[in-house]
Amino acid sequence: MKAISKIYAVLIFLFLYAPIVVLIVFSFNDSTTMSRSVWSGFSIKWYLKLFQDGMLLSALRNTLVIAAVAALVSTVLGTAAAIGIGGMNKLMKRMVMDVTNLPMVNPEIVTGVSLMLLFVFVAKSMGNLTLGMFSLILAHITFCLPYVILSVLPKLRQMDPHLYEAAQDLGCSPIFAFFKVVLPEIMPGVVTGMIMAFTLSIDDFVISYFTSGTTQTLPIFIYSMTRKRISPEINALSTLLFGTIIVLLLIINFRQAKDQKAEEKAEEA
Amino acid sequence: MKAKSAAAPYAVWMTIFIVVPMVLVVIFAFTDKSGSFTLKNIAEVGQYSNVFLRSIWLGAVATAISLLLGYPLAQIISHISPRRQSVMIMLVMLPMWMNFLLRTYAWMTLLEDNGIINNLLASFGLGRLHLINTQGAVVLGMVYNYIPYMILPIYSVLTKIDSSVVEAAQDLGANRVQVFSKVIFPMSMPGVISGITMVFVPAVSTFIISKMLGGGANLMIGDLIDMQFLGSAYNPNLGSAISLVLMVLILICMGIMHQFDDGENSGGGIMV
């Protein structure tokens, strides 16, 4: 790399990481005032405060429950849908894919308010229902589904369609052939889709904001924190979340490297 | 495999949760509170044309800056060794794993009147600047949050360009500027187009960044919609009308972009 390129890359990464570093440093700030930007000594008191915050813990629990249910349901529905789409004729396929792409090209806020209209409409006509966990889960499954389908479809296309027929010729029932032959082939796509659904769900704010009623998820809780209280607790929370993500990514990378090494060894042998 | 029926539950799901809600937006946009047909909501959107213009302007500026800053980085990354490439791409993606509310909040603490940048300036004996609650701060927040969406698609197109095409151009006497403007840039157009779409759509429709970094004075379309549905101005009919206009606007913008894409591609095809 030439010197100018190096300097340029460093500057861009400085721009990307400086705010995050500042956020992390000030999470350890022992400020007595509510100031966010005057350093007054090292302390972990904001972390301790965080764990005494009942609202935060319940928001975290909601987020994890919603993400788990949404990832699971959207993976099952989406994988089945991808298989179905594979067997469709051109016209039907195009129609289904257009609807699938709609939530991905539409601004999130429009998807959010359109779902809110639906949920409010149904809740009103059913009597005294309110928006909450149930509507959040429905909304999250909806915006996760396209991502699952789009990660499973390419794997299906790569698969030899005769494998499935061969399994049936050899006496497998269609269902058994699916679990024995098709599913193992497309598994990497299914797993990727599920992980994407889970992370998208945890991270989502805009759609949750419009479909949550008074229920709080972690992003909604963070939003209300930035609106009302000016507190280094947010910094502590961000640091913890960021640390968790880095550890997870390192584990994934480490495992991939290990798999690669094992593969290389197997090839040598 | 004849498994069309496997998609049936999905089809039902998407009809209920994507198609029906969209139809509801259209119905709400064209009715009043009592439910009878009216064009009043759509007409009322006209009053907010300044908000629409501001959103499109700020979104376009942020997209242009992201492109200008992101393209060179994508090019730099595509030229280094594969092992270092994957590390750099990881570094580009890592901030996206932090919730965007927190990333935007980080900029609040930097830009405030008593924030870190101003404290630094003051400690060097320089005057303080008013940075937060300006349009510049909103654009900064957009660029910061969405620039990875510009870098990644451009990078992935650039790594796929056959280096022998570039060498051929050089052999035929093209200088560096010509190689870039006649070969590399046209060939990277699909990445540029998807980068622009992926930055422009969320930037134009944001309501958090403008709220957190723009103060009350820099209202955007997203803020207007938010106010009609969850804010003080509760009026879902008007909110639906604004959402509908926003959707049509973005569709038009994307249509124009793809027109441009096709033209450039065929040009590139003839040239190659």
TrEMBL record, chain A:
Family as reported in the entry's similarity comment: Belongs to the binding-protein-dependent transport system permease family. CysTW subfamily.
The protein's matches in InterPro entries, at most eight in alphabetical order, are given as: Bact_Polyamine_Transport, MetI-like, MetI-like_sf
| Highest taxon listed in the record's lineage | Bacteria
* Location relative to the cell: Cell membrane
Question: What CDD domains is this protein classified in?
Answer: TM_PBP2
Residue span(s) of domain ABC transmembrane type-1: 60-252
Q: How does it sit in the membrane?
A: Multi-pass membrane protein
Provenance organism: Caproiciproducens galactitolivorans
Q: Where are the transmembrane segments?
A: 7-28, 64-88, 109-127, 133-154, 175-200, 236-254
- Name-wise, this protein is ABC transporter permease
- Which keywords appear in this protein's UniProt record, sorted alphabetically? Cell membrane, Membrane, Transmembrane, Transmembrane helix, Transport
Per the record, the major location class is membrane
Automatic annotation (TrEMBL), chain B:
* Domain ABC transmembrane type-1: from-to ranges: 52-257
Assign the protein's first listed, main location to one coarse class. membrane
The protein's matches in CDD domains, at most eight in alphabetical order, are given as: TM_PBP2 (cd06261)
- List the transmembrane segments: 12-31, 51-74, 86-108, 128-147, 238-257
Q: How does it sit in the membrane?
A: Multi-pass membrane protein
Q: Highest taxon of the source?
A: Bacteria
Signal sequence region: none
The keyword Glycoprotein belongs to this UniProt entry's keyword annotation: no
Q: What Pfam families is this protein classified in? A: BPD_transp_1
Q: What is this protein called?
A: ABC transporter permease
